């Protein structure tokens, strides 16, 4: 244990493990990572980017010879999930950017994941092939058809080993169900259905059926001029397949029970924190807009992220959050500029660790923050190439708000607002995190003693 | 500068083009005269100026957000709600009338001044707390933006600027109707602002385009004007004609995309 860094998060010290992506100064927009997700075992890590590609990393087996290299993640499969499209009716482009990836639980050798852009959800099957059939009767080894008159004997083809090949095939395409932009997908705990949510509607799908979906939430007003609130995120409860939540641009969370009615426009629970009238400004509503909502693994709590805070809500208490954590409150006095340059509309995500004891979210300047719910301590870390020596321990960072700036602190005015960490993921059972910084994916692990 | 709203990945532009430094100092000086209450129009000229500036900025944002890709509805709704809030407060203050009578006929970008007062909560305003100015909000901005501002309409001092930029962009396209429609929309918005009688926000938008938020119809309506300009025979909707018009539209939109990219990336 190195003194001076403090004992944070149950004595966890985070170390750099790997970084994926190029170091070029000019970032190709297509390479910007737009979503990151571990699968249920943590063996696989998927990323989606603005160019519509999905890259899956697989953790290598830990070796006794090199215990320090605790299971590095290497590229397992890369495929083009979505292509740019053109909506001829509206004369608009449909971006191929992958908004979300969600894994299905694994039941056999193949893995399944859902990936979505603004309009279309796809189910991909990722499978390995390490054997090849040889000895066909009707075609030779190159695949060319043989002349049937030349075939005099029959044989049974045999499977022979080959180099491992990982192939991704689209198994289902769920299209034409969303007028507005899809912001969330969530797999139900029944593993038979999933939901997709856009700005105004939420649809329920069965994995086997692509030409139909059930609309379960619709908040589109009859007169669009009366529109003042949109859906920003939605998720199924991890255990109760009838329950889901969705968040809104007005900072509210609604919990719905699908047993109550087919169309869940009337919520079962409504979570909203009363506004502090002394803190009111023209930007109050914008910064209260929830950008992400996540159930805890236990299913007892819901975490929400708005522009300046992360809040943990107890499902049994609707009138205020249980816990509120300030992510970057020093930005409160800068809201005008952030509104002007559109940063105020950035949608940060938030994640739980496997035991629901620590929560993590991103900020600007490639900073990301972790909050320990038990000790109430927090830490700010940075994803940067400078801290990228193997197993280098990440040093906590600090933003100074005013007055004298200590050495190693960074002043608010020096923050780089183009370097934003919107997407992070936490391994389901270990202290391994994946942090997306523009076009680079950083993987950090806790220190091995 | 305003075009950066179209390509949201790089949203930065020179704050100096928004904030004339002298004017900002005036605002802070003006603050010292404030008694710390919002009552009385003449007591807080700088607050009104900043609020007006925020309103103007919001309206421009709303106008510029629908281009090639469908606009982000959440962002549009949040901006529209902000506009509504400002307008309601201005109506309550009575400043809506006052500004109308004062206006010179054009909403000027001079009035897009430092809006740091607006960032404060009402409690802080009551305490008269000083907020650090924006001159050093991000020094890196200025380095980045010397390149941008040469391309974009730096130091714009009138609402002509966004219009001119728009007209430059549209001029490169074949359709003159586009420019006409766009300028018309902006004109309508600002004209509505300067009307003698306060309108509700719905009226504000209704003069522009009733179906603004209805993505099902709005963009079809807007784009149909595009199509009218240079895609013939759309009325008949026969398939060969439609294909032609679609491809024409698509190529024009690609051109526009290309132009926007050049303007923003340089």
UniProtKB/TrEMBL annotation, chain A:
GO terms for cellular component: protein phosphatase type 2A complex. The keyword Ubl conjugation does not apply. Keywords: Repeat, WD repeat. It comes from the Eukaryota. One of its GO terms (molecular function) is protein phosphatase regulator activity. Belongs to the phosphatase 2A regulatory subunit B family. This is Serine/threonine-protein phosphatase 2A 55 kDa regulatory subunit B. The gene is PPP2R2B.
Automatic annotation (TrEMBL), chain B:
InterPro entries: E2F-SERTA_domain_protein (IPR052262), SERTA_dom (IPR009263). PROSITE patterns: SERTA. Residues 47-94 form the SERTA domain. It holds the Pfam family SERTA. Residues 129-165 are annotated as: Disordered. GO terms for cellular component: nucleus. Residues 147-165 have a biased composition (Polar residues). This is Cell division cycle associated 4.
